[in-house]
Write a structure and sequence with these properties.
alpha/beta, Arc Repressor Mutant, subunit A, D-Maltodextrin-Binding Protein, domain 2, 3 domains, five-stranded mixed sheet, 10 helices, 14 strands, about 25% strand
Length: about 290
Amino acid sequence: MDKFESMRAFTQVVEEGGFAAAARKMQLSRSAVNKLVINLENQLGVQLLYRTTRQVTPTDTGRAFYERCLDILRSLEEAELAVSQQHSEPKGTLKINAPMSFGISFLGEKIAEFINRYTGIKIQLTLEDRFVDPISEGYDIVIRISSPLQSPSLIVHPITNIPRIICAAPSYLKKKGIPKDAHELKNHSCLHYGYLATGCQWQLINQGQEERISIDGVFYSNNGEVLRDAAVKGLGIVLLPTFIVERELERGELQIILSNYQSPELTLCIIYPVNRHLSTKVQLFTQFLQECFV
């Protein structure tokens, strides 16, 4: 019996919650996966899994053994990877998910540079602004701009901080006036990144003190470019990352206001499952994106 293959089968059953799903993931028959796990239990002399008609869950011993198996399999993969990297160029497909605005503004050109550098790597890029779980949705890398993230099942690489600014079109400010204090925003039309159900507040910092400022939201969207374009048309005041509005600021289509207030910076992060941390493709793309912001 290949003990490593049995350990892989056992960890897949735990992670997938059943033999059928684990078998699909490993591209084996259900009976083959079941046999690998039973052989492992027999060799160890312990029960690793509770089995019912509806679900499969690890015993206490199985849970502890699962954690040890992960460490052993990662070490094995690292050793295999170290040997293979000495004799081969990186190849394969890298599945990436990224925010819509960041992808449109930045990633197209950079991914072209990356592929030209590593010609054996293909990239499948999906752009969307919802929360994405790289484990359940099968992505190698998820790029996100958000508050700092923490998860025991994910590795998070901070790349750079993303500042945000408050701005509006000169036509709007001429018509409605320029607010001198953030609390005046409740008397202005504001364009809010998010959803109506999440409320109408902006978190701002003034002289080191954080404040939650109530706003009058007239337009809500989960896409920054949509809000930016509405602001350019004079619809209201917007709070957005600088990379979304920098061109419009340079052209004079938008104007920074309330510059004595800051919004907590967001962080551009690369996120991937723990079991991807030894992947050559993931490491290379992470290093490449870090170089882009040095």
